[in-house]
Structure formats: C-alpha cells, structure tokens
Amino acid sequence: MASPPLFQGREFYIPPGTMGRAHARGLIQAHGGTIATFANGMPTQTVLMDRHKIEHRSRWVLAIEYIEDCVREGRILEFESYMGDAEWSPADVNMPRLPTQTGRKMYTDVERGAMLAFVDERQGPGSSAMSRKFWEIAAAHNVTSHSASSMHEHYRKQLVRKLPSEKKALIELYEASPAFNASRPPLAQLPLAAVAPVVAAARRPSPPARTTPPAVIDVVTPPQKKPRSTDANDDDHLPVQSKSPSPVVVVEELDDTESEDGADENPDEEDDDDDDDIEVVQSPPRRAAPVATERSPLMRPIRTVASDAQVDRMMEQLKTSTGMPHNICAHALFCASGNPRTARLYLLGEMPPDCWTADEDTWIMRHFGDLSEALGEDAVKTQIRHVVQKEQGKLMRSPTVQMVFERLRFLQGKHS
C-alpha cells in the first residue's frame, strides 16, 4: 500500500520576498500540501520565513529550508532546529507572533486587541469597513508600531473575520497588558495650596428709620381741584395720573396764549396767576424693547458655504491644536460636515454624535440622495423619519432626523 503524500493535510504560508519561495511552493504542492494566501494565526498553519528574519522561536514559524530537508529525507523532521536562532520567549507559547503579508513584522495578540479597541472606541462595536484615513489616524495615535497601510490590510484581511467572542478576548488581553496602562497615563497629582479659613464678616447695623420726612425745596403748592368740564379744551388742564409709583416732578403749565405761541418770551418771569399752576405727575419713559438686529443665542446656527480662506483658516487651527497632518485634518473636517469643533474632538480621540462614517454616508445617499433639493424641509424630514423608523434595528446608532437632514444637505452640496 502506497504511503500518503509527505505534506498531506498540512497548510503553509510563505510571505512574499522570502528567498526560495517559488521552489518551496512547488515542493509543497507536489507532496500534497496546500499554500495559504495569508497568515490566519491558527495552529494548523505553518509559516515559512528566511532564518535571519525570525524574531522569536515558535513551532509555527520555521525556516524555509525545512521543506527541502523534509523532501530530501523523505519524512517529517523535528522542527526545533528550524525555529530560528533567538532564545525561547515565554510569550510565544501562549500567543505566537505571526508575520504580516510582507513577512517583515509580526503582530501580537496585544496589538490586535489594541486595534480592535481603537475601532470600538472610534466607530462603535460591529464596524467592518475601515478606510485608510482611519488607520492613518491610528498610526498617529501610536496604536501599534506598524504602519497605517499594514494595520489597514491586517484588519481588513484578518481581524474583521474574527468572531465577536474572539474579538472580545483580544480586547480583554490588551486591556490587561502594560501597553493599555501606558497609553492612558494617570492624572498628575497637583499640590493643594493652603486655603485660609473663611470667617463670616459682622453684619452692619441697619440705619435708623426716618421719623420726619425730608425737607422739600421749591415745591409749588398744588391748586384746588377744579370741577370737571365737558369742554374738550378743558382736558388739557386735567392732571395726568400715572399708574406706576414714579417720582413727582412739579412743573408750571403755560397759559393758553403762550401754548398757542409755542414758547414763552420771558421764561424767567413768574406768572402772577397762581391758580393756573397744576401738579403734573410724569412717569419716566419706558425702555423700548431691544430690536433683534442679531440672531438670538437660542436660534439654530445658519449653515453657509465657507470660503477658501475660511477653510484654510480652519485647517491651520486643527493642525495647530491637534498636531495632525493636513490630509487627516481634511478627512476629519469632512466627517464633521465642516464643523471645526466636531472635527477637533474627532482628532483628539472622541466620537461626537454628529460625526459620520463612510458607511453612514452611503446609507444616507442610498435612501435620500434622489430627493430633490427643491422639496421643502418638512417633506424631506418626513421621508427621513419614515426610513429611520423602518430601519431602526439595522443601524449601528440612532441619529435624529435633524442630524440626517443636515448631513444630507452637506453631501448634496459636495456632489453638486
């Protein structure tokens, strides 16, 4: 009975750039083995690399000459002598380090957990599609020691395919590692200044109540009350009463001839007829209501199209306050619909509710992109409310109708 092929049931992965890669692939396939297109981190897969590129000893990462030696001997050889020249690392027993597709760097489970934790913190659990801009932000925050392109490919081809339970285990491993505590330094303990005790000041005694009214100077004695006349002209001589408790101002009324002339020629001379002097109670003029020349703080801000100079100013402010490069600041400003405050929070590691992802933009344009801008705001919001209520369970978050409406107007302005 013929013996089974030498590598039957075994899977190998050879990173691009490995010396003798094509020769080893031919030997493996000729003897019943299979070639994987990427490293999956499973114990059923063996990674073959150049000996000088192996950073840690692991039974799952062997030198590439292992294949040729096995074929020459006609049997599966022991793998200890092909595990590289580095010393044994206790960490490799529990979490083996696997290379990326380039074969130059390998990810640890702690780094995978850091990437998954960063995704959950920025985009929420369950996010699948990540753009390269997102991983450029991750590289700027030093999530791992790998480049943005490497993290993007590793997440897209490996981490996104893991089960939720596997992702949760990786995140818990990362949070229990020293790298998690190092990424969140403790708050500085500032010295507390000595505060003098507060002593209540003694209350000042109240001034004594006045027993006599103050002296009144140059007050004209009011005349006797005249009988009410039905003549319309007599209405000018009636006292004017104010309902509000205002100070009393005593004035002298001009006679009819002087009123018709418009002014008294000798205002310094006193009128001999004291009977015509009356007391007129005048109330101070009411303060007019302020004219709404500016928008009230309670009014919703008016969104306008920013000029090129305004956009350049916002970009400079974002780069100065966050230290991020120009392309990342531009991406954050687009996700925030042009709001610099929201973009700054996004760059500082937060996820404001009015910040949008590429998947959410696609969902908005698919459902509402065909709505004409000529439709009224109420008609568009009615359609948005209907779709949001219908797909409530399918969305990763629950945006308000106003948020979706403002994002739609922003995207329509971009595509116009």
Automatic annotation (TrEMBL):
Gene3D superfamilies: Homeodomain-like. This is Aste57867_9240 protein. It comes from the Eukaryota. GO terms for molecular function: telomeric DNA binding. Residues 2-84 form the BRCT domain. It is found in: Nucleus. The gene is Aste57867_9240. Residues 252-279 have a biased composition (Acidic residues). Residues 239-251 have a biased composition (Low complexity). GO terms for cellular component: shelterin complex. Residues 204-299 are annotated as: Disordered. Residues 228-238 have a biased composition (Basic and acidic residues). SUPFAM superfamilies: BRCT domain.
